[in-house]
Amino acid sequence: MEGEIWVYMEHDRGQILESSLKCMSEGRKLAVNLGLDLACVIINPPFEDIGSVLKDYGVDKAYIIQGIDLEGHTSYVNSLILTDLLRMHAPLVVLFAASSEGNELAARVAAKLKRGLIENCIDFEIDNEGRLLARKPFCGGKLHATLTWTKRPYIATVDTNSLTVEKAKEVKPLKVVTVELRQTFEDKVRVVDYVRADPKKINVNEAEIVITVGRGLGEARFLKMIEELADILGATIGGTRPTVDEGWIPEERKIGSSGKEISPTLHIACGVSGASHFIVGVRNSKFTIAINKDVSAPIFKIADLGVVGNLHEIIPLLIKKLRESKLKNIRLK
Fold first, then answer.
1. What is the 3-state secondary structure (H, E, C) of 45-85?
2. Which of 70, 195, 268, 294 gives 44 a disulfide partner, CB atoms 3.0 to 4.6 angstroms apart?
3. Domains of the chain with CATH codes
4. What are the tens digits of pLDDT across the range 25-80?
C-alpha cells in the first residue's frame, strides 16, 4: 500500500484534546503495520513549537494549516480546507476521533469526496488479500461487524473510549509542512456563542465526572442527595441496570455491557456492587471511588479508592465538606 496515515488533531484552549492523542496512538499502530508514514493535520494550531508537542507520539509529518480568517472557524470551513488538502496529497487513511467535531467533520469530508465512511471503529486489520479492514460494534457492543472501503482515501472515525494515550518508543525527526491559506471562505454557519453544556444533560460517555447509582441507593427518593453532590462537582449521573429497571435512572444513562461505556476522569460508584456486566462499562475510568457498605463487593477490586460504609451517611458528610470548602463545578484534567 502507498500513501500516508493521517490523523486529524482537535485542540481546545491551547491543548491537543486527549481523544485526538488516543486516535494518534491508533494511527501509529496502523502506520507500523502498513509500513507507512504517520502524519497529523492541525488547523490553526494554538502553539508555535509543534515539534515539542508531538515529539513523543511517533509522528513523521505534520500538516499545519494557517491563514486568514481561521479564528472561530466551523466544521463547514474545516471540511473545505481538508477536502482540498486530501486531493493534493492523497493519503491512504484519514482518521478522526469519534467526537462531536470529528464525527461531523469526517461525514462532511467523505460526502465532498464521495467516499465511504466507517464510524466508531475499534480495531483495524489487514486480511490475506492485503485489504484494510475496520471493525465496529453494533447492538450495544454485543455484535461486531468487519467492513472495508472500495475507494481511497479510507475515512474512519475511531471510538477512543477504550483506548489510552500511548507514547512512541523512539522520538522521530518531524517534518513540518506549512499550508498558508490566502483565500477567504464563505462560511454557511456563524458561531454566535459557546455555552458549556449542562452536566445533567450531556451523555454519560462524554462527561468528565460521572456518579453512578446502584441498587444500594435503596429508593428513588434518595436521588436528591446524589443530584446535590452532582451539582457541586459538575457531574453527570448514570445508573446500573437494576436502577434503570426500577425507573430511577433513564435508559439512556445506563452504564455497563447493556448500556454505555464511560471513561471519565473521575467516577464515583454509589451503592454499586460491581457485577461483571457493569465493570465492562467503567473499566476505562481514570480514577474510581467506590462507596459501599459491603466490604466484599466486587466494585472494590477495580476502585482506586474504596469507602466502606453506608452511603446515606457518607454522601451527606461529603456534601457538607465540599460546601465548606466552597468547591463548585470543578474541572479535572
1. CCCCCHHHHHHHHCCCEEEEEEECCCCCCCHHHHHHHHHHH
2. 70
3. 4-181 (3.40.50.620), 204-324 (3.40.50.1220)
4. 999 999 999 999 999 999 888 777 787 788 888 899 999 988 655 555 678 888 98
Of the candidate ranges 104-108, 251-255, 260-264, the one whose mean pLDDT is the lowest: 260-264
Between 75-89 and 100-113, two packed helices, what is the crossing angle to 10 degrees? Answer: 50
Adjacent-strand bridge partners of 41: 8, 63
Residue with cell 517534518: 175
Residue in 241, 236, 235, 271 with CA at minimum distance from that of residue 256: 241
> Do residues 197 and 87 lie in contact, with contact meaning Cβ atoms separated by under 8 Å?
no
| Cα(163)–Cα(182) distance, integer angstroms | 38
Question: If we measure between CA atoms, which residue out of 256, 17, 36 comes closest to residue 124?
Answer: 36
Phi, psi of 131 (to 5 degrees): -85, 145
The beta-carbon contacts of 258-263 under 8 Å, at least 24 apart in sequence, are 258/140, 259/140, 260/203, 260/204, 260/205, 261/141, 261/161, 261/162, 261/205, 262/161, 262/204, 262/205, 262/207, 262/210, 262/238, 263/161, 263/162, 263/205
For residue 72, what is its C-alpha cell? 472561530
CA angle 256–257–258, rounded 5-degree value: 90
Half-sphere exposure (Cβ direction) of 18: Cα atoms closer than 13 Å: 14
